[in-house]
Design a protein that fits this description.
With 485 residues, this protein is mainly α. The chain has one domain (16-478): Amino acid/polyamine transporter I (Up-down Bundle), CATH 1.20.1740.10. The protein is 67% helix and 0% strand. It has helices at 16-27, 30-33, 35-72, 78-86, 89-118, 127-142, 146-179, 200-215, 220-224, 231-260, 266-271, 281-288, 294-326, 344-354, 365-400, 417-431, 445-452, 454-469. Helix 4 (78-86) packs across helix 15 and helix 8 (200-215) packs across helix 15. The radius of gyration is 22 Å and the shape is globular. Mean pLDDT is 80; it is low at 1-7.
């Protein structure tokens, strides 16, 4: 029996600082601390910087699109709600399920990463135990009230932000030291051999995918909108601050690493093929600066980053499943709230998917790690495509029904260029994510399946719903574009 005294709606207790940190917590993690080195090793400092800048511009456009949608209609079911309302019911249905398993899988991915990180200190303890401990911690935090979740996420993300700021300060100090050294060019690594661009277009596309994965999580502000205190004020503020902070972190970090470490540095090249924290570009630079404890320090920081990203992912996917159930897109059982306003049944289901991390007990750790990474990366780009399409059609429908753009509480800039740019770039990266598997004499079928499985899965859910319910593309004049409805 359900608790009749339980609240019927999510609690609006997240403030602007919580929204800021939820998005930062979801998007700054292993992608920056570990993968940033491999991007430079693969595409050179110029290629890596260009890829991150290009993806950063796309994310800015997507965030402003999401800001307009979420301010006009704040809901924890953001993506499926907007897809159903402004595109087509089946499209929204598939988008919601895609987002749910995207972040549930990402939690599993982070829990596998925990196994690699903990090996640094405890090489003889099976990774299974560390995944179990961290899964229990993440579950416990999400079982708290939404305010408790917000405060814990604020703390975890603050640790990461401080670590990055310290890294940037040390990096700039090291660059100035080089500038003060006679007969030594500060840009020597930018003009070394094939630098600044290495590997051509193929390397750039591959790096763009890594950069895209690194930025995933910024869209969480759209989900958190359903539990924010004053959406019209907090969402636009969070949108503006989040993007510039994250872009500044990524661009500055890539520039510093590319300036101080050669793209063909043996340790950086080895880092591209390893999850060893001692080979993180952050660790390398700390050691170059004379900090012997760098590896242990970064281990602790990355553990907090993983906990933060997993925490945000668990929150986001749980809220999406709850909202889908409330709207009849998932079993009603998932729409129940406990006495504190937490959707515990949805949390149980998400935790069950996150338990995929335990596959490492039966299959190789690296194989599971790469499989989950590929699935999550592709799902994230599908979500971004959905945001671009939903915003484009919302704005067209809003104008078609006689409303004035000036009346929107928050207006996305550069329309219609922005959603079109995001749509085209996302499509190119999705299609080119693993085209190398088709090159050469033998096709890498396993690589293709693990990379692209999310696309047919999304299409099967969408077209299956469309066939069953005979849904059609919603005409602009028939859209429900009223505020908050």
């Amino acid at each position: 029996m359900s608790d009749t005294s339980a609240p019927q709606h999510l609690q609006r207790k997240l403030g602007a600082r919580h929204l800021n940190m939820i998005a930062i917590g979801g998007s700054i993690g292993t992608g920056l601390f570990l993968a940033s080195g491999s991007t430079i090793a693969t595409a050179g400092p110029g290629g890596a910087l260009l890829a991150y800048a290009l993806i950063g511009i796309m994310i800015y456009f997507l965030m402003t699109s999401l800001g307009e949608l979420a301010t006009h209609n704040p809901t924890s079911g953001a993506f499926f709600t907007y897809g159903s309302r402004y595109v087509e019911d089946g499209f929204g249905f598939a988008l919601g399920w895609n987002y749910w398993y995207n972040w549930a899988i990402t939690v599993a991915f982070e829990l596998v990463a925990v196994q690699f990180i903990m090996k640094f200190w405890f090489p003889d303890i099976p990774g299974f135990y560390w995944s179990a401990i961290f899964l229990a911690i993440i579950f416990g935090i999400n079982a708290l009230t939404v305010k408790g979740f917000g405060e814990s996420e604020f703390l975890f993300s603050l640790i990461k932000v401080i670590a990055i700021i310290v890294f940037i300060i040390i990096g700039i100090w090291m660059i100035f030291k080089i500038m003060m050294t006679p007969n030594v060019s500060v840009f020597q690594h930018w003009t070394y051999k094939e630098a600044p661009f290495v590997g051509g277009l193929q390397a750039l596309i591959g790096v763009a995918m890594i950069a895209g994965f690194s930025f995933q999580g910024t869209e969480m502000v759209g989900v958190a909108a359903g539990e924010s205190k004053d959406p019209k004020k907090t969402i636009p503020l969070a949108i503006k601050q989040i993007f510039w902070r994250i872009l500044l972190f990524y661009i500055l970090c890539i520039f510093i690493i590319g300036t101080l470490v050669s793209y063909d540095d043996p340790l950086l090249l080895k880092a591209a093929q390893s999850e060893d924290i001692a080979l993180s570009p952050f660790t390398l630079l700390y050691e170059k600066a004379g900090f012997a404890f760098a590896a242990s320090l970064m281990n602790a920081v990355i553990l907090s980053a993983i906990l933060s990203a997993g925490n945000s992912g668990m929150y986001s996917s749980t809220r999406m499943l709850f909202d889908m159930a409330k709207e009849g897109r998932a079993p009603k059982w998932f729409s129940r709230l406990d006495g504190r306003g937490v959707p515990m049944n949805a949390l149980y289901a998400t935790t069950a998917v996150a338990a995929l991390c335990f596959l490492t007990t039966f299959i190789g750790e690296k194989q599971v790690f790469n499989w989950l990474l590929n699935m999550s990366g592709m799902c994230g780009f599908i979500v971004w495509l959905g945001i671009a399409i939903s915003h484009y059609r919302f704005r067209k429908g809003y104008i078609a029904q006689g409303y004035k753009v000036e009346d929107l509480a928050y207006r996305a800039k550069f329309f219609p260029f922005a959603p079109w740019f995001a749509f085209i770039l996302c499509s190119i990266i999705i299609l080119g994510q693993n085209y190398q598997a088709l090159l050469g004499g033998k096709i890498d079928w396993l690589g293709l399946v693990s990379t692209y499985i999310s696309i047919p899965l999304f299409l099967v859910i969408w077209l299956g719903y469309k066939w069953k319910h005979k849904t059609k593309l919603i005409a602009y004049k028939d859209m429900n574009v009223k505020e908050g409805e």
